[in-house]
């Protein structure tokens, strides 16, 4: 599919083009207002801001389900079979049209209200570690998820309807399969590491890292990987996120933690999301296709820069000098090898977004198993905190002392089930992209060590970014790797990297050797 020189909207019926442009501008306004609300909007304006966003959301919903819009889309989709990009625009908006029409307006509004109330109560429950406070709200929100699964429709499992909101090419059977492969690849590796005699010096990152210098480090690092500061903004927030407004405005909001490791990797992660948006072909703007194609692919881009570059030894050959100059006391006398080993320490922990490479997927698997069970009705909201803690004990060998560091830590379940799974999908896809990139550029490690991130970004731009959502997740993967989702490149990469780092005897497990 080639990208065209003229605006794609110009090729549509003017009434349809104008309707699509309105939809896209409403979406972009919402993203912009959400950025503002989360990065320093005045506290006295927050409630009014939420009301404004809710009005825009409602107007957007009405635009998406408009009957005349549906008629024009059907007419277009019937006559444009030889124009793949225009067909894709029609298919993209037809799907939103059908989804928006599958939910009665009243229920959509009631759900939106329930969501905003639940967010407020959850924040309070988290502060006081009081699950009982938010329990009735979660019960109502989860009832909506069950109902919406039925409205959206599914073939095999109600979870299919949920995951397809985030990753339309993926279903429950695929997730069951890939998560079982990740478990059998990762659990034994984590155990071997916990018994290894060589362990990193944990004191390195327990030292003092002043926030002002952390901000400087994060700014320099995201510049190094190619984040364009003229096409975005770099701000701060409580829960890091990226805002995909358009290629000319892709923002990053991060947080600085006590441990500079977490802060640096979070900034690289969110910048990776925004670098994807910045490199989408401008001709796709306002068509609906000018955005990430799926949450899994979006996450693959953040994870690629965070884990495959930001945790690469070569990256720190380039940047450790900078870190040492910013934190001369903390890193005095710390050799690059010791810094690098401590940066990649594997250690089970309770908070998902602070987890290391290997235990990260287990945090996701725990959430996936619980949300699937909630949707099926095989566990109740009442049992949730206990089940959560049991699973942490089973998979990670640690048990949260309270619900704040347990089940109350994330807010994702308010918007829907399936969001967490996209994090592991992204890790798996990033593993596949990395596997292919190393084949295409056998000097990959040298490129990273020489700071040639531009060569790597060019590869990602031409294989992934530019297409926006004009190619689906599996179309991208097929075009790049010749196959679909595959956990082997990731497991093989992680096994090799961590066996080497912890000086373990190489494993002979067949599941993780066949890349
Ligand atoms: Zn992310």
From TrEMBL:
Keywords: Carboxypeptidase, Hydrolase, Metal-binding, Metalloprotease, Protease. Pfam families: Peptidase_M32 (PF02074). SUPFAM superfamilies: Metalloproteases ('zincins'), catalytic domain (SSF55486). It comes from the Bacteria. Belongs to the peptidase M32 family. Broad specificity carboxypetidase that releases amino acids sequentially from the C-terminus, including neutral, aromatic, polar and basic residues. This is Metal-dependent carboxypeptidase.
């Amino acid at each position: 599919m080639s990208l065209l020189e003229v605006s794609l909207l110009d090729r549509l019926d003017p009434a349809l083009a104008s309707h699509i442009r309105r939809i896209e501008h409403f979406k972009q306004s919402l993203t912009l207002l959400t950025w503002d609300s989360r990065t320093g909007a005045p506290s006295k304006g927050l409630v009014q801001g939420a009301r404004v966003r809710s009005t825009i959301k409602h107007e957007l919903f009405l635009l998406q389900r408009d009957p005349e819009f549906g008629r024009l889309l059907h007419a277009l989709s019937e006559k444009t079979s030889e124009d793949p990009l225009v067909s894709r625009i029609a298919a993209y908006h037809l799907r939103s049209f059908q989804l928006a029409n599958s939910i009665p307006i009243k229920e959509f509004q009631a759900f939106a209200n329930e969501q905003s109330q639940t967010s407020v109560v959850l924040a309070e429950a988290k502060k006081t570690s009081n699950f009982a406070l938010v329990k009735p709200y979660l019960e109502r929100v989860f009832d909506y998820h069950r109902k919406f699964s039925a409205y959206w429709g599914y073939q095999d499992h109600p979870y299919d309807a949920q995951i397809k909101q985030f990753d339309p090419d993926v279903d429950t059977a695929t997730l069951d399969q890939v998560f079982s492969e990740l478990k059998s690849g990762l659990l034994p590796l984590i155990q071997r590491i916990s018994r290894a005699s060589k362990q990193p010096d944990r004191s390195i990152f327990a030292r003092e890292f002043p926030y002002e210098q952390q901000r400087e480090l994060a700014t320099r690092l995201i510049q190094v990987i190619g984040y364009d500061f003229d096409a975005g903004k770099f701000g701060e927030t409580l829960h890091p996120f990226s805002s995909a407004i358009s290629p000319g405005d892709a923002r990053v909001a991060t947080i600085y933690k006590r441990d500079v490791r977490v802060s640096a990797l979070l900034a690289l992660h969110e910048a990776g999301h925004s670098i994807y948006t910045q490199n989408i072909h401008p001709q796709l703007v306002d068509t609906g296709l000018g955005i990430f194609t799926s949450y899994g692919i979006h996450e693959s881009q953040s994870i690629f820069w965070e884990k495959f570059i930001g945790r690469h030894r070569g990256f720190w050959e380039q940047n450790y000098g900078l870190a040492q100059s910013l934190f001369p006391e903390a890193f005095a006398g710390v050799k690059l090898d010791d810094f690098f080993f401590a940066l990649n320490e594997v250690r089970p922990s309770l908070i998902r977004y602070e987890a290391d490479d290997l235990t990260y997927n287990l945090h996701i698997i725990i959430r996936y198993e619980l949300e699937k069970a909630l949707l099926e009705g095989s566990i109740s909201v009442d049992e949730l905190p206990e089940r959560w803690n049991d699973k942490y004990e089973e998979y990670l060998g640690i048990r949260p002392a309270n619900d704040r560091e347990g089940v109350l830590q994330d807010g994702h379940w308010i918007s829907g089930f399936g969001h967490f799974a996209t994090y592991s999908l992204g890790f798996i896809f990033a593993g596949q992209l990395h596997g292919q990139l190393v084949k295409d550029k056998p000097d990959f490690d040298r490129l990273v060590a020489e700071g040639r991130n531009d060569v790597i970004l060019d590869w990602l731009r031409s294989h992934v970014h530019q297409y926006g959502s004009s190619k689906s997740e599996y179309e991208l993967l097929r075009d790049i790797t010749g196959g679909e989702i595959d956990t082997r490149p990731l497991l093989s990469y992680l096994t090799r990297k961590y066996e080497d780092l912890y000086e373990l005897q190489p494993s002979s497990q067949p599941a993780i050797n066949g890349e």
